[in-house]
Amino acid sequence: MPVQAILKAVIPVAGMGTRLLPATKSQPKEMLPVGRRPVVQYVVEEMEQAGLNQILFVTGRKKSAIEDHFDADPELVRLLSAADSYTLLEELDYTETDATFFYTRQSTPLGLADAVRHAKRFVGDEPFVVALGDSIIRNGREGSLCRSLMEAHIASGAACTVALEQVAPEDTYRYGIVAPQSGADLAGAFEIDDLVEKPAPGSAPSNLAIAARYVFGPAIFDAIDRTVPDRKGEMQLTDSIRLLKQMGEKVCGLCLSEGERRYDIGNFESYFTAFMDFALADEKYGYMVRQYLKRKAREL
Ligand code: UTP
Predict the structure, then answer these.
(1) Which stretches of the chain score pLDDT less than 50?
(2) What's 146's domain CATH number?
(3) Ligand 1, closest atom to CA 111?
(4) Residue 19 domain-assigned?
């Protein structure tokens, strides 16, 4: 199967974003800006660059700003054209895309696994990519992480292939952590023996954290159906992948390449870090931000 046999991406954006309150009280966290764009725009651009042109958003209440963001806005275009504001008009180019957007609603945010379950009809029997709407992959060549994941997925015949990043041992409790097969060569795709969601401090099987990008075959839906909700009543996707493994399916992992980094904006600490890094690297405003920061650093 060639890589471009995978054309569908699912972007879950239905979570409540409670850790970012009050910023997310009435707006989706996926629409918070990082640098000059909302987070979810980076995610969509990454999918398009990887050749994934059928994109399903799993949305929920208070998320309509996401639909509006990816829709054309003829009135705004008319206004900017009349004012000869061509530079600003260019900022809307992202809406002219070959991708087709689909939307489905997860009325109650019962966890990431439940959100992915909402994609069942959309994907049918095809393999598909899941990209978390609150996480940016930066510094990869355009769309390259997803391409590598899809290639590895197809070559290995796995039912699931996850992107992985090394995290500090003291941070493993925040993530889904995998146990690579013994002797696995982390330089390429490797098999995973087990997975655990947010392991208790000191009990993580490795420091390899699932990094917000996945490729699945349709078998994941059977595993999701068997997934038991956690103490908070949420169905964790990591638990579903664990079940997939226990059902005898192959699960693989692929580490981010050197220079690639995942930014998730789930809490204020990671959001601030993401915003600063993107602002500092901004082509147009980065220089000014760097100068300001240098001045400021002297006062700290
Ligand atoms: P998170 O678990 O980080 O998001 O999900 P959350 O539930 O919104 O966060 P808090 O704990 O309340 O602050 C990662 C991604 O999965 C989506 C979220 O929208 C986010 O983009 N998600 C999460 C869903 O679509 N549905 C869910 O039930 C949970």
Answers:
(1) none
(2) 3.90.550.10
(3) 28
(4) yes
